[in-house]
Design goal:
By secondary structure, the chain is mainly beta. It folds into two domains: 85 residues, OB fold (Dihydrolipoamide Acetyltransferase, E2P); 45 residues, no CATH class. The protein has two helices and 14 strands. A six-stranded mixed sheet has the order 6-5-4-8-9-7, with no helix packed on it. A three-stranded antiparallel sheet has the order 1-2-3, with no helix packed on it. A three-stranded antiparallel sheet has the order 12-13-14, with no helix packed on it. A hairpin with a 5-residue loop joins strand 2 and strand 3. The chain is elongated and about 75 Å long. This is DUF6484 domain-containing protein. Pfam families: DUF6484.
Length: 167
């Protein structure tokens, strides 16, 4: 390889520029399901590989088109980008923090404990999907809402409480 005037660019044996340092790029839309296309420095789009732990399904969705990513290059080859991370969208983060500050718990902890998964919140935790939700409040109140609620047990199905009301 012979060095050009740029500190980060070398001429590779094939006559392509070798990229020796990470670059920021953008996710582009693709017609092929699951394919991740990226552009950087006005080059591309190129199909990209992903670092393990990054979801190909999520990254190939329309909501990620235009998002900034950090790229490294296999063998320094400009046509072999590898996505190593998605960069924070500062504007989106600020809007979320401003618009949802009152509805979010003040802090939340997620930890593993003796083979169990424990998620803790200071005030309230809500699990929501479509028309259904489970709400757990700090004072111990648990509310389950849904269009239809089914409870099944292969053994005894117990309902215990200070009092039990049915309809």
């Amino acid at each position: 390889m012979t060095k050009t005037s740029g500190q980060n660019k070398n001429i590779a044996d094939e006559g392509t520029l070798a990229l020796l340092h990470p670059r920021t790029g953008r996710i582009e839309s693709s017609k092929n399901p699951g394919e991740i296309l990226v552009t950087y420095d006005g080059e591309g789009p190129y199909p990209a590989r992903l670092l393990s732990g990054i979801s190909r399904l999520e990254l190939s969705s329309d909501s990620f088109v235009g998002r900034e990513v950090l790229l490294v290059f296999d063998g320094g080859r400009a046509d072999k980008p590898i996505v190593v991370g998605v960069l924070e969208n500062v504007l989106e983060t600020l809007v979320c923090l401003d618009g949802e500050a009152d509805s979010r718990p003040s802090s939340m902890e997620d930890r593993s404990c003796n083979g169990r998964k424990v998620v803790e919140a200071d005030k309230e935790m809500v699990l929501r999907c479509g028309e259904g939700s489970i709400s757990i409040k700090k004072e111990g109140r648990i509310v389950i809402r849904g269009r239809e609620i089914v409870s099944r047990a292969s053994g005894t199905n117990k309902i215990k409480g200070g009092s039990v009301e049915l309809n």
